[in-house]
Design goal:
single chain, 1213 residues, alpha/beta, Nucleotidyltransferase, domain 5, MutS, DNA mismatch repair protein, Chain A, domain 3, Rossmann fold, 6 domains, seven-stranded mixed β-sheet, six-stranded mixed β-sheet, 39 helices, globular
């Protein structure tokens, strides 16, 4: 360990060693074919991705690579649509153009080269081919061996492979100094092939829906949203002990090896060995990162120690695997590690007799510290644990005192005896003494020889390790895999999961499968899954009552298939699983305001992606698709999607749909490969619906009010939902001639408002002065007035301000990182400082000559005073390492010039002149330190006395800073000052969505709500994607901004104060609390009904969409009636819904008003909306609007006008 390590905190080294991976990614796409190459910065590995079909516009494999790698820089070549998709993934603005990032423009520009566009040209092929063959890869004896490896393992016949690799290597050559400044040239520890064909595609929404990964924000409001503060939520990742498995694979050979590993770990005969492996694997680190650090800083012993520990324990793992298995036994990764110990070469370094002899001389020289020196040490450290000579690199022999004292005491005896302080680390203090200098003069040359010899051995060792690095990396990688599978085996044993069989035959045959996460919370009812082409049930339709477990069943199937494809045992009695190439799901809904995509359109795009990209080897899980619109539209869309899949016959993917549309199969023209299942349920003696959670064949029968009674009983606060009222609503709906529509669920855009500013006392008073000078004494100007008055009345605060400015030399103190008093405050102190300044004469010429032998080039060489060290010579030089030679080292030792330490480009040495100055002026320096310490203590006590007043001013400054930011936005966006009053109501003219208008031109809308006009409760009905959810959010944001004291986006606004803002916009579930998304919505609505008052604002978007039409409509009507019965004491509430006859079904219509969004059909029959709010109800839908929906989702080819009309006619019949 070098001298810096003695005073440096190793936490920063640990942080460098275990930092997250950073990737450089090169992509080439042409004619629906993708190839890629990526480089891992921390492990120095390069991976070649062979060509694979990647269809546009979805570019599924491109998205998959970005999801896995999260690259820090991207090189791309391909069609304009491909480059646009890359820019979207990198979150570039829509206005950005790929031409602006051409390789000729940005390659050598560090500020812009995070994205580089290379031309798609045949001319570059020879040059890229040359770059690939000239790359320096560790582990090859000669160029011939490397060439053979490349020709054998890399698909060099694929032009896109050559181009992607060449583009990456060209980028690395041009930017390597900015990427890795510690290395002179790119280093590649290994070159491997990374195949995407064997990977199972899973998108982010499926990972979230299946709860494979789940992060929760930090519970503290101050930490929420900050990168790195997220907590691991309830997920498979947490269940499997944070195992970071690779992407799921459908390679049968790989999966069998993983299963064999878990089977070996679960064998009771291997329990002791597994326990030993766990202990040893804790100390096996990723040596590629460590070796990179060794190459950058070979003198850092910490990295050598980690490297040695990893290698030692890795071979210990190999030995354990060898001793516990038979030579030909199939035991997966364990077998690989067993065989590795036989073929790996011995990497032990040979013994050096000459070096050992020199070290023996140095060890013998470290005699005991003389008694007279110990007496001086005791005057500094009355209590110490040890005092002994030690050899420190670049400093020579020093006395190391280990003492628990925080600050040692100084007296004149130390300077007279020649005992000088150097530096300290934690509880160890280092001093030089005359005995140290004698030892340095006698053994300095030997020490230099040892350093040079060890440096040569280090260089040879690095070369030897580099040669064998690929083999070492293979062992370490197998250790990491074994560690992961031991964790999986532990979970598999604890939760009674069983082995299974993965086959190439399509199908799922799972007996007594269970939800891996659900059974962590409660006893789970197991269910079977039997799907295969031979039984003609590739597409399964599940209908069941609310909260019966439909979504759980879908997730259970998805999790079991996922676990099987990462090589883990599954929660089932037995399982035969055909490999899949992708897992698609449509379970969670979301929206994207900045992309002008509502939750309904988001669902359509998601489903279009599934239809376009799914193959016969895909698994599709769809939950309640079509619930975000009217019944006719939703049912038509669902039937069209099912028909598209079923028409593929035996080539259809495995798909499971859950729905409340009970007649879905009846509406399908093509019913090949369709099967209906339900969840067993019955009514008890009280008429309450009970479910057994057991899957059975068949369709769930038509619902009635008894099930609604069951729903009501689970939400006690919803008192208006009685059996009698439900029956009357149902009768009214059944007698209505209009078709019952369903609803749409949109997610609300989260708003984050935060401010942080830290003002010094000086700037705080400058703010007060500005406020005073720019306002009249009695002028009403809010926080500005408070700050104006503060400077007049707070006399004590002014004294603090003046004291700090007159006592402390802030600039000098910041530079030296200590408390320094201004000149003129204390005459005696100034006189002592003047003596010290006069003592700092020029460095003698003979000392400068010695310095030049160490630093041939330096900018300055002068005396300086360093706290606790006294006078030293400070040499400022751009040289990274000073010259070290026999002549220079001999000259320095003879002249008494000794190295102490260095900071960046400044090196500190002691000389005889320094020691003379310390002897002469040491006592004065001590007096200065004590005097300034006393002044600092007095000033802190004075500030503490006035701290509350100071904090008040600083707080006002922070508030002012926040409101200045608000004012800036308000001025740019033409916000207006709202008129706030105590009267209930909203009167907003031309209100706008504050976030939406950042993305596009927004159509403003009015809001006029008050008790006098009798419209406290507003019902909005409108077509899909017309802006219903945007209108709700717009009202909520305007009211929120008004209540935090900000101007609002409107032409004018009169807003009555509210005491709460409630919303039901987000839908979610909570598996660990046994709450489905439908029950979650009910609980949320029950909370709103129970806690809302006349001063509340309620925003409800598509409540009741998670169940059948009758149930959803009944719940919505009951909630609206509960609020409307309060009359003038009702809260302000806005409901959006697709249930057009909601108001007609209400018995109490007081305070109700209907509004819609203006729309019309153009000449082509396409529905156009003006996004303008008007009074009235939206008229009944027809196929023209469905045509409008289909035109927005081009991939859904089965949804033609003719097919829509036939489905509608069938529904109406």
């Amino acid at each position: 360990m070098d001298s810096n390590d003695t005073i440096e905190n190793l936490s920063s080294i640990n942080q460098d060693l275990f930092e997250e991976y950073e990737h450089l990614l090169s992509l080439c796409w042409d004619s629906a074919t993708l190839s890629a190459t990526f480089y891992v910065m921390q492990t120095m590995e390069m991976f070649i991705v062979p060509e694979i079909t990647d269809l546009r516009p979805m570019f599924s494999y491109t998205h998959n690579l970005f999801r896995q790698l999260n690259p820090i820089a991207v090189m791309a070549s391909g069609h304009e649509s491909f480059l646009r998709e890359i820019m979207n993934l990198l979150k570039f603005p829509e206005s950005a153009c790929a031409k602006d990032y051409s390789v000729n423009v940005v390659l050598n520009n560090p500020d812009m080269n995070k994205f580089v566009v290379f031309p798609q040209s045949e001319k570059s092929f020879p040059e890229n081919h040359r770059r690939l063959f000239n790359v320096n890869v560790a582990g090859f004896e000669n160029e011939s061996e490397k060439k053979t490896y490349l020709n054998t393992n890399i698909p060099l016949h694929q032009k896109l492979v050559i181009q992607s690799a060449g583009n990456l290597l060209r980028y690395m050559e041009a930017n390597w100094k900015s990427i890795s400044p510690d290395n002179a040239k790119p280093i590649i520890s290994s070159l491997k092939v990374f195949s995407l064909k064997s990977q199972v595609l899973i998108d982010d929404s499926s990972y979230l829906a299946l709860e494979i990964f789940n992060t929760a924000p930090h519970p503290s409001g101050f930490m929420k949203g900050i990168k790195g503060t997220e907590q691991i939520g309830f997920s498979l990742y947490r269940l499997l002990n944070h195992c970071q498995s690779k992407q799921p694979t459908n390679d049968i050979a790989v999966l069998r090896k993983r299963y064999d590993t878990i089977e070996w770990c679960l064998d009771p005969r291997n329990a002791d060995t597994v326990g030993q492996l766990r202990k040893v694997l804790r100390h096996v680190y990723e040596i590629s990162r460590c070796f990179k650090k060794i190459l950058e800083k070979p003198d850092k012993m910490y990295f050598w120690k980690i490297f040695r520990t990893s290698i030692t324990n890795a071979f210990r793992v190999c030995e354990l695997c060898r001793d516990s298995t038979e030579p030909e036994q199939n035991c997966g990764i364990v077998g690989d590690l067993r065989d590795a110990i036989e073929c790996q070469v011995d990497i032990m370094v040979g013994f050096d007799a000459e070096l050992d002899a020199m070290k023996a001389i140095l060890r013998a020289a470290q005699v005991s510290v003389p008694d007279e020196t110990k007496d001086i040490i005791r005057s500094i450290f009355p209590v110490y644990e040890s005092c002994e000579f030690t050899l420190v690199p670049e400093m020579g022999f020093v006395v190391a005192i280990k003492s628990p004292m925080i600050t040692p005491s100084f007296d004149t005896a130390t300077s007279k005896s020649g005992v000088k302080f150097i530096c300290h680390t934690k509880e160890t203090y280092y001093y030089t003494t005359p005995s140290c200098r004698e030892l340095n003069d006698k053994y300095g040359a030997i020490y230099n020889d040892i350093c040079m010899r060890e440096q040569q051995i280090c260089t040879d060792l690095i070369a030897f390790i580099t040669k064998n690095l690929p083999k070492l990396l293979g062992i370490i990688k197998s250790c990491a895999q074994l560690d992961c599978f031991i964790a999986m085996a532990t979970v598999s044993g604890n939760v009674c999961t069983f082995g299974h069989k993965c086959t190439q035959e399509k199908g799922l045959n799972i007996v007594n499968g269970r939800h891996a996460l659900m059974e962590e919370c409660k006893t789970v009812i197991p269910n079977d899954v039997h799907i295969s082409p031979s039984t003609g049930n590739l597409i399964t339709i599940i209908t069941a009552p609310n909260s019966a477990g439909k979504s759980i069943y879908l997730k259970q199937v998805g999790i079991i298939v996922y676990l099987a494809h990462i090589g883990c045992y599954v929660p089932a009695a037995s399982a035969e699983i055909g490999t899949v190439n992708a897992i698609y799901s449509r379970i969670h809904s979301s929206d994207a305001v900045h992309q002008e995509i509502s939750s309904f359109l988001y669902d359509l795009h998601q489903m279009a992606n599934i239809i376009a990209n799914s193959t016969e080897r895909s698994l599709i899980l769809i939950d309640e698709f079509g619930s975000g619109t009217t019944v006719n539209e939703g049912k038509s869309l669902l039937v069209a999607c099912i028909e598209d899949l079923s028409r593929r016959g035996a080539f259809a993917p495995i798909a499971i749909f859950s729905t409340h549309y009970l007649d879905t199969v009846d509406l399908c023209e093509v019913r090949e490969m369709l099967k209906e299942i339900t969840i067993e349920s019955h009514f008890d003696d009280s008429g309450k619906l009970q479910t057994t959670y057991k899957i059975i064949d068949g369709r769930y029968p038509q619902q009635n009010a008894n099930e609604l009674h069951n729903i009501r009983s689970s939400v006690k606060n919803l008192d208006t939902l009685t059996d009698e009222r439900l029956k009357s609503i149902l009768e009214k709906m059944n007698s209505s001639s209009s078709a019952p529509p369903d609803s749409d669920a949109l997610l609300r855009e989260k708003l984050h408002c935060a401010y942080s500013t830290l003002m010094t006392i000086t700037n705080a008073f400058r703010v007060c002065e500005l406020c005073r000078d720019s306002t009249e004494p009695e002028q009403n100007c809010g926080i500005v007035g408070d700050l104006r008055d503060a400077i007049e009345c707070q006399v004590d605060i002014m004294v603090v301000f003046m004291a700090i400015n007159e006592i402390i030399d802030i600039d000098e103190g910041m530079e030296q990182n200590k408390f320094i008093t201004l000149e003129g405050f204390d005459a005696e102190l100034d006189a002592m400082k003047a003596i010290l300044r006069a003592a700092q004469v020029s460095v003698p010429d003979e000392t400068k000559d010695i310095i030049r032998s160490i630093f041939p080039v330096y900018e300055s060489c002068e005396f300086t005073l360093v706290p606790e060290m006294g006078f030293v010579v400070a040499i400022k030089s751009p040289m990274i390492t000073p010259v070290s030679s026999d002549s220079s080292s001999t000259a320095t030792s003879k002249s008494g010039v000794k190295f102490i330490c260095h900071t960046k480009e400044t090196y500190y040495y002691t000389t005889p002149s320094c020691r003379e100055l310390n002897d002469k002026y040491g006592a004065i320096y001590n007096d200065i330190c004590m005097r300034e310490q006393q002044i600092c203590t007095d000033l802190i006590a004075f500030i503490t006395k006035n701290l509350p007043k100071l904090l008040g001013i600083i707080k006002s400054c922070a508030q002012l800073d926040c409101f200045i930011a608000m004012a800036t936005v308000s001025g740019k966006r033409m916000y207006v000052r709202p008129q706030m009053h105590a009267e209930k109501g909203l009167n907003i003219v031309n209100g706008r969505h504050a976030l939406m208008e950042e993305c596009k031109t927004v159509i403003p809308n009015d809001v006029h709500i008050s008790p006098s006009t009798g419209n406290l409760i507003t019902i909005i009905t409108a077509p899909n994607s017309a802006g219903k959810s945007i209108y709700l959010k717009q009202v909520g944001i305007i009211v929120y901004l008004a209540h935090i004291g900000c101007y609002v986006p409107a032409a004018s606004a009169e807003i009555g104060t509210v005491n709460a803002i409630y919303s039901r916009i987000h839908s979610s579930d909570a598996v660990h609390q046994e709450i489905s998304s439908f029950l979650y919505d009910l609980h949320q609505m029950a909370n709103i009904i129970a806690n809302s008052t006349e001063r509340s604002l309620i925003l409800i978007d598509e409540f009741g969409s998670g169940t059948t039409v009758n149930e959803g409509k009944s719940l919505l009507v009951a909630c609206i009636e509960d609020l409307s019965r309060r009359g003038a004491f009702a809260p302000i509430a806005i409901f959006s819904t697709h249930y057009l006859d909601t108001v007609d079904l209400c018995e109490v219509r007081e305070m109700l008003k209907e509004i819609t969004i203006e729309s019309r059909f153009d000449d082509s029959g396409k529905l156009q909306t003006t996004y303008k709010i008007i009074d009235g109800r939206y008229p009944q839908q027809n196929a023209n609007e469905l045509h409008n929906i289909r035109s927005s989702v081009k991939n859904l080819d089965t949804l033609t006008d003719e097919r829509l009309k036939s489905i509608l006619e069938k529904i109406q019949a």
